[in-house]
């Protein structure tokens, strides 16, 4: 029998990473249109990271029938996907520091989301995968913190 809890978790992951990718691509395009090249390139990189996560989720879920959830069926902590919640804070002339802080907020929200799934799931495999994803998001957040430290104002 298929693991329904894992399939539901992966459906959330696909949605979250898809929305994050779309958000970062839109932000990159917006920054490019305002000639904010360094921030556009940063958001392009974040979109690629989301794409890599999406591929990882697809690999884990290969052969599974993931549920097709309606918008109101997603269990988002703040009512929206964690990695796209900070996108409204972007301004055309934002600095690279501001862009990294925005992405850092998204990574921390994703880590918290995945971590909560790891804590509350009754399924061992779902807990394992969610904890793995939470650790990956924590690692991304750490990388962003290091990059912030290297930026001179």
TrEMBL record:
Record's compositionally biased regions (Acidic residues): 71-81
Pfam families found in the cross-reference section: Rubrerythrin (PF02915)
GO molecular function: metal ion binding; oxidoreductase activity
Highest taxon of source: Bacteria
Every Ferritin-like diiron domain range: 1-153
CDD domains associated with the record: Ferritin_like_AB (cd01045)
Designated name of the protein: Rubrerythrin
